[in-house]
Amino acid sequence: MDDPNCDAEALQRTYANFRYVNAVVSGLRHTYRRDIRPRLSAGAETSLLDIGSGGGDVARSLARWAARDGLRLTVTAIDPDARAHAYAAGQPPLPGLEFRRALSSDLVAAGERFDIVLSNHVLHHLGGAELGALLVDSERLSRGLALHGDIERSPLAYLGFGLGTWPFFRRSFIRADGLTSIRRSFTWRELAAVAPPGWAVRREVPYRLILRWQAPAIAEPRRAEGRRAHA
Ligand SMILES: C[S@@+](CC[C@H](N)C(=O)[O-])C[C@H]1O[C@@H](n2cnc3c(N)ncnc32)[C@H](O)[C@@H]1O
């Protein structure tokens, strides 16, 4: 699907099928419950950026779950790929959800900030310098939390995905690209070795890695109080 000349119908089916694959392998519901929902409120708006949104199902699920929970969340989903953007933006609209054709660096250049920044299945697409740039962008774009989720490479993940998808997705790139993605993805040790200071790698089931960064807490006021107390 990365080939600009790939079959257009198979590509559309691939975007449409991402939601089924992500429902099984992305762990997104768990990430929403544990990391995102506790930061949302019914009163104040929280903003979230999905980097590399592809077919848009991750952004759509998050917007839908927050609305169902009565919590206010605006979701901006970006992808520089014109075909991905056209597919995602062409789906039925949801309140608070916006798709934009952009790179994370475009938003940094425009000075945009979000409470939460995340991506799903983007890391394994990137070379070393691109990965570093994405993480720098994430820190600049996030006021609070950044989470990059991806597959963890392992022979069992490869075998399981190969067998599990074998009867399905025949007329899309899901199976072939998924297997390539697993071969390209990181192990825990590899991702931990390239994670910059401030980033931590968490391992999750099934064969998931979450690269996590949290904005440093501002501790100055407490220190000032302490100095006053000793004055
Ligand atoms: C495999 S797709 C992931 C799609 C989607 N997140 C999902 O889980 O189905 C990876 C996408 O990341 C996008 N991408 C890569 N680097 C990016 C960046 N710096 N900013 C925005 N999008 C990026 C690519 O254009 C591609 O569409």
From TrEMBL:
Signal found in the keyword field: no
Q: Which CDD domains match?
A: AdoMet_MTases
Domain Methyltransferase type, by residue range, is 49-136
Q: Which UniProt keywords apply?
A: Methyltransferase, S-adenosyl-L-methionine, Transferase
From the UniProt record, list the coiled-coil ranges.
none
- Top-level taxonomic group: Bacteria
Q: Report what the protein is called.
A: Methyltransferase domain-containing protein
